């Protein structure tokens, strides 16, 4: 016994030290002074209204429709990736392959295995997706409250096509530190969510209608996977298609554009406005049709008409009316 006594004593000291460190860390977090600006940030998840800088879509499933609004302003990459995949039919007939009641439902994998799927930039733009996925977009305006739509990942900056909808309906506000969360979000967590996901997963949308469908999917019968997780649906619910009803009209979408005309570049100068770099000829005229290719990784857009107003000394740009896609 005496032989092992020093080891026992050292073990006890180690345990006491670890407990002490944990208590000090918790105390420090509890004493963190709340930034007054935190309660002034925009919280778009808390309203069903679709703002100009947001998009709206309806996800049609074999259990019913789920209406979602997307946050273009805060998560432009995630939204562009999701909308492009939706328009291309990438999610059509895919299933919610991972379902855990009181947690979330996960889909977006064309293989249905949980290990498939890729971003729209893979193999096309290494500056955004080098092959492992695109970067996280974390915002103090977005949280994993009940109904949040987030990108699933395999670690930081590994976002691809898979996503999940937070379903947990239980009050989890007691586990949320009010000093580092907006007060309205703390209250929102009383209606459910999964705050431990915050900061690790990109929240890019919010269910504004159809949570009953999400709950129905989450409550479906599941079996245990090979890894021991009880999350494999016995009869997987499928996404039949996704209809995009509104795309953001935020002006930032046309920022940093480079315009190309059928004339020599030596005869062109750049006029900068608050939202757009507009090409005009040196004599002040503007061609009727211009093809603008954005420097950001999104599809080219066509400007129908450009006018140069000498009186107001600014470029006026008119685009076609937003269309339902």
Verbal overview:
By secondary structure, the protein is of the alpha+beta class. Helices cover 16% and strands 26% of the residues. It contains 4 helices and 18 strands. It has a 9-stranded antiparallel β-sheet with strand order 3-11-1-2-8-6-7-5-4. Strands 12-15-16 form a 3-stranded antiparallel β-sheet, with no helix packed on it. Strands 9-10 form a two-stranded antiparallel sheet. Strand 13 and strand 14 form a beta hairpin. The radius of gyration is 25 Å and the shape is globular. The C terminus is likely disordered.
Quickly describe the structure.
With 325 residues, the protein is an alpha+beta fold. Helix content is 16%, strand content 26%.
Number of strands: 18
Helical content band: 10-25%
Average predicted local confidence, pLDDT: 78
Largest sheet: 9 strands, antiparallel
Strand order of the largest sheet: 3-11-1-2-8-6-7-5-4
Question: Beta-sheet strand percentage?
Answer: 25-35%
Q: Tally the helices.
A: 4
Radius of gyration: 25 Å
Low-confidence stretches: 251-325
